[in-house]
Every structure is written in structure tokens, then in C-alpha cells.
Q: What sequence folds into this?
């Protein structure tokens, strides 16, 4: 009976583990619907590349290939939704908590606007200070 209980518990843990796993992974399995024919671009290689299924408010928003050594996204894929042009989106600068810690939630968060950005954030992704002397730039483009 003990063996049966142990096997059942192990099976349940393995079955449910994919539901609670972090979305930084080696594949875009959970967000491949953002790509044409559900296939991510091929041929981009590197040891510091991270595949992110980015969420905001618990909704998948982007599939992003991120280079953590350069602190830049190489590409992001999403499904374009045309607006009527009357509503302006005033979205704050966001950071990706999945790049900061495995313990963070998968939801993007607003970047703290105080003078000092916490080191774990600026060590892994671009922050406002990176654009201080930039003549012209467009965030995330």
C-alpha cells in the first residue's frame, strides 16, 4: 500500500508540475500561438538566451527571446490587435521579474521610478538609467 501511495503521489506531482513551472524555459511551448505557424524563428543561438512567455495581469502577452548577457530582447512576438485609435495606452516602463529571480511571479511589473533601481533588476535588463544620455530612442523598439 505504501508503494502504491508513493507512486500515486509521484505521478500527481509530475502531472501538475508543468502547471506551476516558471515560464523562462528552453521552448515557447506555452506561447507558440504568437508565432506564424506556431514556430519560433530558428538559427539564433547563444548560451545566455532565455525564452520568455511574458504575462501581464495573468494573461499571456508576448513570446520573447532575451539575451541576458546584453540585457536586450532579440525579438518579441505578439498578436496585433487593431484599436479604434481613440484610446491612448499610457503603460509604465515594465520589467520582467522572471529574469530577476525564479521566486518572482510571471507577471511583468512596473519598474520602480525611485532614484536607484534594485541591482537584481538592472543586472538583468535595461533600465531608465541606460537611456540617460541617449539622443533619441524608443523604448522596446
A:
Amino acid at each position: 500500500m505504501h508503494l502504491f501511495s508513493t507512486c500515486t503521489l509521484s505521478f500527481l506531482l509530475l502531472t501538475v508540475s508543468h502547471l506551476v513551472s516558471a515560464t523562462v524555459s528552453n521552448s515557447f511551448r506555452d506561447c507558440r500561438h504568437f508565432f506564424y505557424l506556431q514556430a519560433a524563428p530558428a538559427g539564433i543561438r547563444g548560451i545566455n538566451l532565455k525564452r520568455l512567455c511574458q504575462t501581464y495581469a495573468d494573461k499571456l502577452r508576448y513570446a520573447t527571446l532575451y539575451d541576458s548577457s546584453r540585457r536586450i530582447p532579440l525579438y518579441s512576438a505578439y498578436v496585433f490587435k487593431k484599436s479604434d485609435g481613440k484610446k491612448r495606452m499610457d503603460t509604465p516602463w515594465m520589467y520582467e521579474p522572471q529574469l530577476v529571480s525564479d521566486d518572482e511571479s510571471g507577471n511583468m511589473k512596473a519598474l520602480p521610478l525611485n532614484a536607484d533601481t534594485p541591482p537584481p533588476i538592472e543586472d538583468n535588463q535595461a533600465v531608465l538609467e541606460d537611456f540617460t544620455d541617449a539622443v533619441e530612442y524608443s523604448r522596446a523598439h
